[in-house]
Each structure stands twice: as C-alpha cells, then as structure tokens.
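Bumping my old thread because nobody answered last time. Still need a sequence for this structure:
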C-alpha cells in the first residue's frame, strides 16, 4: 500500500509498505478519504505543534473514512455509516508516529 509521511518541514514522501495484517478483534480499513486540519498545517509548516515536535516520519490527517476490508465488521454505532464504511472520531491518531507492534495501531475501531 502507499503511505505519505512527513519527514521534515515541507518534506512529504510517498512510499510503498506492506499491507498490515489485523490482529484478533481488529479490522483493516482501506482509507478512501482523509481530512487535513489546522494541526496538520502546523506539522507541515513547522514540523510540530505546541510542545510536540517531529521525531519520526509522521502520517498527517487524522480524520479518516474508509471501507472495512478484513476483520470484524462490528463497529461502534457512532462511527458507522452505510455499507460497511467507517469514519474515525476527530483527532483519533493525531501526532502518533506508527511503528510496527506499537499501540499506535489501536483506536476507536478496535472491537472487543
């Protein structure tokens, strides 16, 4: 899959990475749209926001929508939209760099 990450002020790089495998109880969502907000503009223009600074490549945009492609399709009613589509709550993953095996992979779409 393709991923765009901020590496430094004004430096976004597109790369190919393996599609992650959802862990038990988690769903894989193919993102179809992402909103960019004011905090993303701070990251882009300053490589940080407030006291948070860029320490590792960061995926911008934390208001996402997509389609569940693998895993449980039971999601919280507040996030559901028709036909197996899902949207995240605002500010779900802000400023959390992803690295394999970290809690950054969890969020409001995790099921129990």
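Sorry it took so long. Here it is:
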């Amino acid at each position: 899959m393709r991923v765009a990450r901020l590496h430094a002020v004004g430096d976004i790089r597109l790369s190919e990475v393996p599609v992650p495998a959802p862990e038990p109880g988690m769903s894989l969502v193919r993102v179809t749209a992402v909103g960019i907000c004011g905090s993303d503009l701070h990251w882009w223009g300053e490589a940080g926001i407030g006291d948070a600074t860029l320490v590792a490549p960061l995926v911008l945009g934390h208001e996402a929508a997509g389609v569940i492609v693998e895993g449980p399709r039971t999601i919280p009613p507040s996030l559901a939209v028709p036909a197996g589509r899902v949207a995240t709550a605002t500010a779900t993953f802000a400023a959390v760099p992803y690295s394999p095996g970290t809690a950054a992979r969890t969020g409001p779409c995790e099921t129990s």
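The chain is about 10% helix and 35% strand. Let me know if any region looks off to you.
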